[in-house]
Amino acid sequence: MTTTTPPRILVGYTATPSGEDALAAAAAFAGSIGARLDVVVVLPMNSRPSIVPNDPGYDALLRETAEGWLADARSRIPDQVPSRERVVYGDSLAGGLLTAAEAGRAALIVVGAARDGLLGRFTVGSVAGSLLHASPIPVMLAPQGSRETAAPLGRVTGMVGTREGADAVLATSARLSAAGTVPLRLVSLLALDLPGVDAAKARVSEHHAAAVLQEARAALPDGVEATASVAPGDSISHAVASLDWLPGEVVVVGSSRLAQQSRLFLGTTAATMLRELPVPMIVVPRAGH
């Protein structure tokens, strides 16, 4: 009898509202898909223990603070979600997270919102921005307020289109839907992706978007069902705002076509969506060739 190793989700933690948002979203998501949490606090590389520390007192204080944060994180994770908490070192916060994710074979990195984001919305901060330019694995962006609103996975929404990367979005969305045994919804914003669209062009674009959705549904694995819709609106922001969102929902989007192979890059459409979304967004990297 063979056993399947549960996927591992890495979350960067700090004892801040942003860190608590990331942890809450990650724990709720992990519990829904049977994943393990790997909670890390990143310390500067020059504070790594050595025979002759630069400043033993300061380094000891950093380590003590990090251990306190990890204890706080541990107390916030539900008992049914397996986890480990540890300190890692890096030249930067993003670099430390990427190194830890690679070493631990994480399937997903989770980070929280920048402090200046509106409640329930995400503003990409420096750490998240660095990850979105360099990560070879998907990154989940938890909107501000997730520590209050995080819930078990309720639905997976995949944003599909004709651009390169749609296959990765579809495959990831279907896999997460199956893992969490939750509904799958496919949404196309294609009809709203052109400036200055008149009524006639809008109708043609909507028909094309509907055809894209039909093709996407047909490409789903056997036994996987999905609803599909074209989001209405005269802009990406309006389209996203017009959609309904369930508690615990996650949105899956593809990396920009500007990204290098097997790396992330947040495109303008996804960045616009991010400002409107009240639920976590998972950005999937382009597949390598």
From TrEMBL:
Residue span, UspA domain: 8-142, 164-285
Gene3D superfamilies listed in its UniProt record: HUPs (3.40.50.620)
Matching Pfam families: Usp
Membrane-spanning intervals of the chain: none
InterPro entries: Rossmann-like_a/b/a_fold, UspA
PANTHER family associated with the record: STRESS RESPONSE PROTEIN NHAX, UNIVERSAL STRESS PROTEIN UP12
Family: Belongs to the universal stress protein A family.
Name of this protein: Nucleotide-binding universal stress UspA family protein
